[in-house]
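Appendix B. Worked example

We walk through a single record from start to finish. Start with the input: the chain for NACHT domain-containing protein, Micromonospora wenchangensis, length 929.
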Amino acid sequence: MDPVALATALAKPIVAQVGAAAAKGVKARVWGDPERKALERALRRALTELNRSYGDRLAEFDVNDGFWVHEGAPELAKVLVPGVPPSPVRLAERAVDSLGRADSDDERYDRIGLLRPAFKALLDGLAAEVRREATLQGMLGRSDAASTAQATTRIAEHLGAVDATDDDRVAYLRWLIDQHRYLRTVGVVRNTTVQLPLGEVFVGLQAQRDRNPGDRARAWFERERERLAALVAEGTLDHTGFEAALDRLQTEYGHRFAAETDQPARQPVLDAARDAAQLLVLGDPGTGKTTLLRYLALTHARALISGEQVQGRDALFPIYLRIGEYARQGFSKMGIGEFLPGQLRRAECTLPGLPDLLRRQLDAGRCLVLLDGLDEIALAELRRGVVTAVTNFVTAHARQGNRFVVTSRIAGYQAAPLPEPFRAVRLQDMDDPTISRFLDVYCREVERAETPGRSAEATRLAGAREATAIEQALTTNAGVRRLAANPLLLTALVLVHRASGRLPHRRVEAYVEVCNALGRTWRSAQGVAEADLPDERILTRWLTELGWWMHEHRPEGAATRAELLDVLGPLWAAHQGTGWDPRVLEAADPLRTDAGLGVAEFVDKADTHTGLLVERAPGRYGFAHLTFEEYYAGRALAFRGSATDRIAEIRRRLHDPRYEEPILLALGLIGTDYVEQIDEVVAKAIYPAEGNPSPYEELLGRDFLFMLRVLADDTPLKTATIDAVIDQAVDEWFDQEHSRCRFSAYRAALSERLGALGGTKAADRFRAALDSRAVPAGDTTLLRWCQLAAIAGRLGALTEPTTTALTTLATTHTNPHVQIQAIRALAQHDALTEPTITAVTNIATTHTNPHVQIQAIWMLAEANPLTEPTITALTNIATTHINLDRRIQAIGGLAAANPLTEPTITALTTLATTHTDSFVQIEAFRVLA
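Next comes the structure step. The output line below is what the pipeline stores for this chain.
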């Protein structure tokens, strides 16, 4: 860039722009030769300084003379037009857009951010150089009055009272994007922080409307709440106890009235945030409440800059605030509106016109206000005051059309709830597609951070392999899949997989490894000092005792510090080598005693560094997820007392729904640590319970069905024990006239439990049991044998004898119902051969019973992927069958292919374009569309 030549070239278009501004109402100026030369001198000096300071950066982005003359001149001209401030952001946007379309919005924003300082320096420098030229000062009428105005502006900037410019607005949005662009998390490699692109990794969870004022159970809840408030007023209940009692009341409220009203419908939480003017989002720790608000801030800021919409609506001006910051720094002095500018400045958002910008946007009703962490306030009185401040702020700005989203943990919320018209929703667990999307991005980005030397393609492939491996492990293990429903726990599973290269097959092993990773190995790998971590000698022991007590006594999942001292105090005393004195609990301040301080130190370290124990509400603690509480309760069942004690405790709680998971985990732990005891424990505590079965076991079979759950966990039982259970299940299935299988509910439950044995030793024994039995005679018994074979087929490849027998039945048996059941079993593991397809095609085209025809067609359609013979068979049915409904069903069968393959598309296209029946054509067109 030659500043002299460029200054000469720029002077003409700038003068033209100033003339155009004059035509729009700005006072016209006469530009003679002296004025033009003065402008060239000012431009030359400003451009020379720009070239000296930013020449390399401008060259990197190909900001050349052509850009300045064509795209840059209109913005530079604003320096000479009174009342029209130039914008370095707009100048940067024009420069970036002149380069062509960026690969992503992030890349465009980054380029704008890199160029903005250069263009701001140029505009400020040009304004200063123009003021140095007396000819221009006189021509523009900028003498002493202009200098006074500039001085006044500088004073206003210092006082934070300057008017906001469009540049301030864009700069604020850029700052907000930079604040929320990445989700920062830890990796496995020491001292690595993985920055995940939030726009890609955000998982759109489902939310369910919370039971709220207006439902018929609310009156009962409010009466109970008033009774507790009276106890607080009397001094017989403190505020922490009041909150704990409210949480227990809320838990009972959900159970007590669950059957009286339908469950509210679920919807994506982003839809709830779009539709509700005032939304409260409730969720347990680790469910993504903060991530949701950060994602909303990011997407709306990006959309405002790019001029796009968000979910079909105009983008809003986002304002994000952690409520805890207001409670700590501003609550006693000012309202939220007054607090916001100062808090943003403390976060390095240093814009001269920030207060005016926020005020104007709120007054115009264009804001999306995001208030994060209503629960993160320790003192109950302070929390109520902050809720009042939030309510006042919302009331003051809601009528203008602003929208509000507030987040809170569930525990403790009822002690200081937000009033109507806030609509409350609860975040739900992640579903399979959400888990898959999260794993794809998370695994790739962790790989990128921890192996920076790899190529982009190698990183992508390695991340995809890991994500696929984890998904497959989740598919085959329902217990581990349950852990993955929570974003925090899914992250822990990824860390376990990266550390060991696998996820344990047995669910109990997965729990052990996840808890070990969260409890110690993860944070040690991150470089956390040993002194800052909870004592490894006591961590598992103390959490086991706490998990047992909380599962038994605190269904809401939170305990006060005093309750923690009551539970853990005896363990602390034993660790110190002293006896426990329960009178500690009667001290004036038991939490300040040696025992109280010792337990508090453990709890604080566990809360800060493990991710297992968290402060669920101010002053009250619980496990980060119910699964952890269940695991440690299961450890207590497995290891407390003698074998006789364990059997008695398990048996007593066997069919209590809250203890189903702890019992299964306990049996897994016993099978790992006391393998010589496990068969006896199962026989006495579960099945056959040696003369002590559950009531009506001969009709309900609850003990037996639970025993199948034990087998599904791959508990290391003797082969003889497994065979006895499998043989009984098979015998009952065959004898449906006299066994419990005469009841349809039991039969369905038995089928479900057998179908859950995949990947276990019991699944192998189930397939062996089918092989060991001769193919029965009689159509009814044959049907049942085929049904069992279909269940076994879902668990893995059938053995050769079973496959051969099924193929014979499918192709030669005279009863089409038996044929279809045999084909269904073969289809479970893609064993449909061409003769089998021919047999089922004959049934579909020649059988007189339409129901049988429909079943046969769908047997063909269920083969996935559709093979050439199957496509041919379905196409022939769609083309030639005498019944129009059967033709359309065959087309539907072709459509069932996922994804549609080229042969399937060809077949459908032929039907749509050449068939003589318009109904067939229309249906084929619909499927293709």
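Two observations about the output. The longest strand covers residues 403-409. The chain has six domains: 3-159, 164-184+206-210+266-428, 212-263, 528-640, 642-659+666-773, 832-929.
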